Amino acid sequence: MPSAPGPPGRRLDGIVEYLGLRWESPEVVCLEIRPELLNRGGLLSGVASFALVDYSMGSALWTHTTPDEGIATANIAINYLQTATEGEICCQSRLDRRNRTTAMLRSEVRHPADDRLLVTAVGTYSIFPRRGKEPRLGPRPS
What we know:
By secondary structure, this protein is an alpha+beta fold. It has two helices and six strands; from the N terminus they run H-E-E-H-E-E-E-E. The two termini are 26 Å apart.
């Protein structure tokens, strides 16, 4: 099972497991390119890259929230600059601004083998009071 934010051995969700996302830190999430993630042209599917960006942004923001706050993606604008066909790619996300109800982040996806910039993105997330009794996953802010 890939490493993900949250208690060890605890499943984040099925998408993380299917994609095989691996967390290097809350801000850096990596994806190993596999044949089932390639499109008919033999290139990495944009859907896989988009999901990598979304999980990386969400994880980066999660460390700047309290246990009483939830987050949801409101918008991501993504630019596909280059693609990849094999190896691992990593997304690094950074929180640019956060207020009580909204956060703005930016991300870059790179191919670490040659440091090629593959994707850039900016995202907006909603921050809201958590409701319900389900335990919160992910690292708690220190």
